[in-house]
């Protein structure tokens, strides 16, 4: 029977990224995980609006105007809060001699750069980098896998 593997692929790819970045996977039914996926999916859809595209060129002006870009900003803030909570937990439980994941490695580098005033290794940079890895990795990888499955279905002899 036909089925759409889209959600399964997004969840699988997101969980792999979570294991690399956060050092832990989420259960596919975990509310926090599902909320995170929903926020990212909603932002992908909202990015196509003209207001969201104008926000990229005129962010100061668009901050005062209503539209779907406002929802995108709120979603990014929620995802940022999610990552900041995980970062805070990592800071409490970190063992510098044994990094568990990307966040621990970044925190270790932050500690090494502590005296450097020009360092770009900050909690804000860590949060944004984590978000970038999540956004870039989840969408592109799951779509590539979906297209790969479609090609395999179309050309089963291969």
UniProtKB/TrEMBL annotation:
EC number: 1.14.14.1
Cofactor requirements of the protein: heme
GO molecular function, one term: arachidonate epoxygenase activity
InterPro entries reported in the protein's UniProt record: Cyt_P450 (IPR001128), Cyt_P450_E_grp-I (IPR002401), Cyt_P450_sf (IPR036396), Cytochrome_P450_fam2 (IPR050182)
Subcellular location: Endoplasmic reticulum membrane; Microsome membrane
Entry keyword set: Endoplasmic reticulum, Heme, Iron, Membrane, Metal-binding, Microsome, Monooxygenase, Oxidoreductase
GO BP, sorted A to Z: epoxygenase P450 pathway; xenobiotic metabolic process
Entry-linked SUPFAM superfamilies: Cytochrome P450
Homology family: Belongs to the cytochrome P450 family.
PANTHER family documented for this protein: CYTOCHROME P450 2E1 (PTHR24300:SF356), CYTOCHROME P450 508A4-RELATED (PTHR24300)
Name of the protein in question: unspecific monooxygenase
GO cellular component: endoplasmic reticulum membrane
Lipid bilayer topology: Peripheral membrane protein
Pfam families: p450 (PF00067)
Gene responsible for this protein: Cyp2h1_1
Superkingdom of origin organism: Eukaryota
Coarse class of the protein's main subcellular location: endoplasmic reticulum
